[in-house]
Amino acid sequence: MPEDQVGKLEATENTISAMAAAAAEQQQFYLLLGNLLSPDNVVRKQAEETYENIPGQSKITFLLQAIRNTTAAEEARQMAAVLLRRLLSSAFDEVYPALPSDVQTAIKSELLMIIQMET
């Protein structure tokens, strides 16, 4: 196989691996959202600690994806919306200005799109 084709194949494999990893992380985040709603104090406390250790930009990404996913459980989507509101209102000055301008624009666009989907 020619070298350029091998390089393209490796790049494709890396992309697929990255997409699979992102999907797995999002699934773990859905489980975390469910655990945040758990009536079991131990489970909920552990989920809260895990959530607090997620970096701000990653939280925003996961929360927006959860809100946008209409196939996700309604409770998980609602929890994601509440957590995003809390994050943007309580830690706005820490999180938002540190984001690249293209990410800030994407967040605004995503929020507007989500609002339009719900109305």
TrEMBL record:
<dbReference type="GO" id="GO:0006886">
    <property type="term" value="P:intracellular protein transport"/>
</dbReference>
<dbReference type="InterPro" id="IPR016024">
    <property type="entry name" value="ARM-type_fold"/>
</dbReference>
<dbReference type="InterPro" id="IPR011989">
    <property type="entry name" value="ARM-like"/>
</dbReference>
<dbReference type="InterPro" id="IPR001494">
    <property type="entry name" value="Importin-beta_N"/>
</dbReference>
<dbReference type="GO" id="GO:0031267">
    <property type="term" value="F:small GTPase binding"/>
</dbReference>
<protein>
    <submittedName>
        <fullName>IPO5 isoform 19</fullName>
    </submittedName>
</protein>
<dbReference type="Pfam" id="PF03810">
    <property type="entry name" value="IBN_N"/>
</dbReference>
<feature type="domain" description="Importin N-terminal">
    <location>
        <begin position="63"/>
        <end position="117"/>
    </location>
</feature>
